[in-house]
Amino acid sequence: MKTLLFSSLLIMILFTTNIVWADLPSPTSLKAEIPQTTYSYKASNGTTVVLGEVQNDNDIPIYKVTVYAKFMNSDGTNIIESKTGTTLLQVIPPHGTAPFMISSTKSDPSIATVQVNMGPFDSSSIKQQVLDISPGLLQVSDKLILSGNVHNNGAQKSLNTKVYLVLYDAFQRVVRIGVSNPIDVDPGKDSQFSVTSDLDPRATSYLLVAESDVYQSKSTPKNNFQTLPVIVSNTMITDPNGTSYSTIPVNASVKITSNLNHILNSTQPFIYYVQVKQFSGQVEFIGKYEGIFLGPEDQNVSIDWKPHTAGSYFVETYVWNYDAVPLSSAVPSINVVLVK
Questions:
Q1: 242: phi > 0 → left, psi -120 to 50 → alpha, else beta; which?
Q2: How far apart (Å, rounded) are the C-alpha atoms in residues 307 and 128?
Q3: Is residue 183 one of the residues assigned to a domain?
Q4: I need a labelling partner for 219 at 20 to 30 A (CA). Which of 103, 210, 238, 273 fits?
Q5: pLDDT for position 339
């Protein structure tokens, strides 16, 4: 049930299973709300991040939207830190939404619940929605990366244009947000953008929206995406002791090691393949490692190889399931030069 500005805000935080009652804001002639359950998580630096959306229930735009967040212990009896934030979009269009993201300053492990409530906001003049976003393919590696073009249909130069990538889970909660570097777009012209976001295994759909000092875009429709569950990174070619080779002697022992990150909360058997090819394309070696993921986890896996012929080679890595279905995206080849 949505909770309007004139009623109690019921906000459930999925950082734990705690249910938190937000404070009742002061009365106002304008209405805004946080229509979905907010979401929080621990960042890699130990801080706690809370995300959500504010919906404008008016026939006019609003701006200077204030969102209050209290970071508390597990039973909500101790406020460890309070933070004030705002929506990422400066202006929320009539009956539109805008995401917010507030992070604690402290990396306090005792932060276990987050309480969020609306603050004051003002009416605003409208920002023309004359920016068009043409996205490319969503790339999955250790991050989500989306590039594309922003076209300016307005009469003025679109200064400080930012593109926001908003990820949603199956319950339409905001679970991650990526923000591009600001770009300028001349009238009638295109400019390229690239936006990066952290991965979240709960994410099932995303939308894009752009805003500059003077213009906005309409939000793109939410697109569903399938994220392959394994990310391959940090592939290294070393001797058996882990020391990197500058050149590899013929008949020397070589260890090819990769980090595999499984992002889904499920059990997954896998096969890690290494294929070594000559630069002519002829396959020199194929090795495999069989393992199993027991949930979201990292594994370092390795395969031994002994080159018998001098020459130039490149290495390819793959992760498949036992039905030969890829579990990871394509990984760039690693060039290896053999001497001796």
A1: left
A2: 63
A3: yes
A4: 103
A5: 54
